[in-house]
Amino acid sequence: MTINLNTVLKKQKTERYSSFIIYGDAGIGKSDYILKFIERNRDLQIAYFNILDEYPKLKSRQPLFDFNPKKFITWSLSLIDGISQKNCDALFIDNFDFILNLWSTIEKEEFLNQVEKYFEKSITEVSVIFLLHFDPLVENQLDKKFIIRFSELETQNVY
What is the CATH number of the domain that holds 107? Predict the structure, then answer.
């Protein structure tokens, strides 16, 4: 069964929690898919942040090893500051695997728990979607509702 990303984003507006992970192997086209999805769905207001571009802009240039899950989530939410929450349907955060790979198993679990339960509508109306590639911990949790396999996304109207 394929999953229509546009339908998922619309459904997120009615859900209590507003974030999820799109998960797939490195180099299979997740970023390209999202960029084309954004281009073809101009009726949606979508923001896309490539962390490889955003991290160097940090004023404090916080050392990567000190960028724990809580600080990363807080920083991710700060990206929304420049976006009008009433006009934005979704925020995609891409290429943060270089940070995730520095975390211990406990920190990765903390991050996954926060993605699953922290992004309530009371915190942000904007759906926050993290693009992630292979990690054994995520691989073991693919049955969770907040993780979507990239291979299950419908590509017919995107590519």
Answer: 3.40.50
